[in-house]
Amino acid sequence: MKKKFLVGVAAFVAGVAMIPSALAVNFGTAASITSGGNVTGGTTDTVKIVYESAELNIAPAQAGGQNLEARPDGYGWLGIKITAPTDVNYNKANYYAVNVKGEKSETKLYKDYKDVAGEEDKVISLWSGINFDTLNTALTKGSDVTMSYYFDWDGNDTVDQTFIVSIDPKKVTLKKESNNVYPLESLPKVIPLLPNQDDVNVTGDGTNFVTITYKNAFELEWVKKDQDGIVRPVDGWWIGVRFDPETEKTGATFKTRANGGEWSKEYQYDTEKDQGEDYISGWILLNEEKIAGLENYVFEWTFDWDNDGIYEQTVTQIIPVKNVTLSKDGETVYPKEEVKEEPKVEEETPNTYDGISLYLILGGVSLIVLVGLVLALKKKKSIN
Fold it and tell me: What are phi and psi of 6, to 5 degrees?
């Protein structure tokens, strides 16, 4: 009996010892395709590929297909090569990516995008796109441009390993047909028109990314669309900014958007610029419908100044809604003053009685006493 017991214990211990190795997930490895990437983390659950600098050519769009991810137009690309672990679940392994804006891609099967079809080759090449939007996002956040890849190697719906590609946006150079398009420091200047320039802070003027922040409280008066010789689409409250290139920009185009929405159609600078001038005055209509409930109203202008298909300058206007007052004919329209209702005070009922009430009360009491006495006498008589 003792021998059987010892054998059973040994089998149990052996079983426990085998469990971790049976459940363990081996890790893949990474290498940089684009020169300058330093890989750290080795065969751990988090591998980092950090680029000290990168000079990237903006490439045309590339269609996707079997074993090939699609690449949209207008990006420079950082490439990495990941080798899957030896025990990768070929049919179920998958991954997804998250960019610097926090946008998550669809989940993709590893076998559909690896470099060569078949289980023998275990390498998958991945490309992280960098354009003006991602650069501007990183600069605004004060972070690196990043792309994180999350791999589920055994196909059990759990992330096993993460690969993080990163680069300082100030260490990136973007080129278009051998011409530098980022960073640039000789782009057109901006001149805030309304409200008063003392209420406005401009950063990055003349560079790829200009920010205009309306730092102080200001009041806008309602104006007619053609008031003061300025042509505006409609009557209302308007904030203005002038874009003032030093040289004529024939063929330039621009687009706009509000609060991170979709970009507008493309406008021709030649037809939109001020009459008889080489600059353009841009006007933003503000009203209660647009700004109510927002912390900031954000409006963006993006320009392709040299007509090469690359929008190399973005101007962002940040308007803290708490600083805005809209008025018409001397009266404030926004923000509306809250009308506080005075609490109702209920009148206390005086605890006093007039002579008639007192007389009726006393009379009623006397009647009750009298009836009581009569009933008592009748009861006594009936008993006797």
Answer: -65, -40
Split at pLDDT 50, 70, 90, the class of 239 is very high
Q: Buried (b) or exposed (e) across 236-258, using 16+ Cβ within 10 A?
A: bbbbebbbebeeebeebbbbbee
Q: Report the alpha-carbon distance of residue 349 to residue 352 in Å, rounded.
A: 9
CA distance 267 to 238: 20
Domains in the chain (CATH in brackets) are 24-177 (2.70.50), 184-334 (2.60.40)
Q: Are 151 and 160 in contact (CB under 8 A)?
A: yes
- DSSP string spanning 162-229? EEEEEE-GGGEEEEETTEEEES-S-SPEEEEEES-GGGEEEESTTSSEEEEEE-S-EEEE-B-TTGGG
pTM flag (> 0.90): no
- What is the tens place of the pLDDT at every residue in 258-273? 999 999 999 999 999 9
Torsion over CA: 164, 80, 105, 25 (sign)? negative
Q: How many residues can be counted in the chain?
A: 384
Q: Residue 82: is it exposed, middle or buried by C-beta count within 10 angstroms (0-12/13-18/19+)?
A: buried
Residues 6+ apart with CB under 8 A from 82: 28, 29, 30, 123, 124, 125, 126, 149, 151, 163
pLDDT band at 372 (very low <50, low <70, confident <90, very high): low
pLDDT for 261 equals 94
